[in-house]
Amino acid sequence: xxxxxxxxxxxxxxRQQIAKALANADxxxxxxxxxxxxxxxxxxxxxxxxxxxxxxxxxxxxxAAKILGISRPRVSQLIDAGGLPSQKVGAH
Length: 92
Description:
Helix content is 48%, strand content 4%.
């Protein structure tokens, strides 16, 4: 199953620890990585919700429904209508 990382997984103590690490000049990160972490941290601090997935990562219909905020049957309808790309995995 795909691993989904959500903003709700970051507790206040986690956010504080990340902010402290980003402020530490001894920690060398590539600029794009630092900017990404800063943006995600700011979003979490503002109460915005986000998820992180790897590009091309396969999801179950249940996971896709949760991310999209729709029902699993609606995801199946969208797949059947060609509105969402899909790939069958395993024997069905």
